[in-house]
User: Fold LLM class flavin-dependent oxidoreductase from Mycobacterium spongiae.
Amino acid sequence: MSLHGTLNFSDHNFPRPKVRLGCVYLPQFGPERLAATARVADEAALDELWLWEDCFLSGGISAAAIALSHSARLTVGIGVLPVPMRNVALTAMEIATLDRAFPGRVRIGVGHGVQDWMGQIGGKVSSPMTLLREYVTCLTALLDGEVVSYHGQYMSLSDVRLAWPPEGDVDLLVAAKGPLTLQLSGELATGTVLADGTAPDAVRAAIGHIDRGRANQSAIKSHSIVTYVLCATDPDARTGVDDEILDSGFDDLAQITAPDDAPAIADAAQRWIDAGTDTLVLQPAANVDIEDFVRFVGAQVQPLLHQVQ
Assistant:
């Protein structure tokens, strides 16, 4: 049955995903350090390690395979794969391969991609929204093991079916910032990846748009909110975070700076959780020792955050 009107999910007994904490392995760190970082994250019991597929740095799927194969329990998220770069059937094949090899440990985000970069590779389209809708629709059906025939403005598939589809549900998220993309994510995805630099009040506003999309779902489903938050855990990193805020024009409220103070970081992180974030991903400055950062967050910050849930 379709849901219509101004449904507000906060007014319903709707299951909220459990709170998870993660760290970003920035693509500036280099792929040769990823295996060691994944091992450290696993040893520190960090919930999640997130990877970016930024042009023209490391590949998201191959990086995820490295992180997964060098850890035993760590969940690995890709946030996100730019859809204009990737044939949807190939993306489905690669996601299914990862999920079957490492069941329940993969979270995949897809998005419009940075339009300047998409132009550089000849992938820029006239309607990114149409492409994203068609792509997520086809990708979801392929991962569900369906035979897909679809002929839209950008997607064209004829009797395509994965030989090795995932054996369980795959967490497929959409990166979103503007109201229309947020609404599309709420309608089609299992979660939304919010941009770095999103302050708590902006998270609340984004969820309002997402919920309008969720009202168009055929059934009420859980929907995860993933938020990247700039985080400095030492004085040198504070300088790096400040520089990124200045260069990117981020809201100054969208950061956590508490050198070597795990309780202060956990306390500050609660602001995003209270706003509706269930997966908080701490983003370090590019000048940090990533292994030390991951170890500190997993071993010292995460237990404090889980205590109050």
Remarks:
- The CA atoms of residues 122 and 160 lie 25 Å apart.
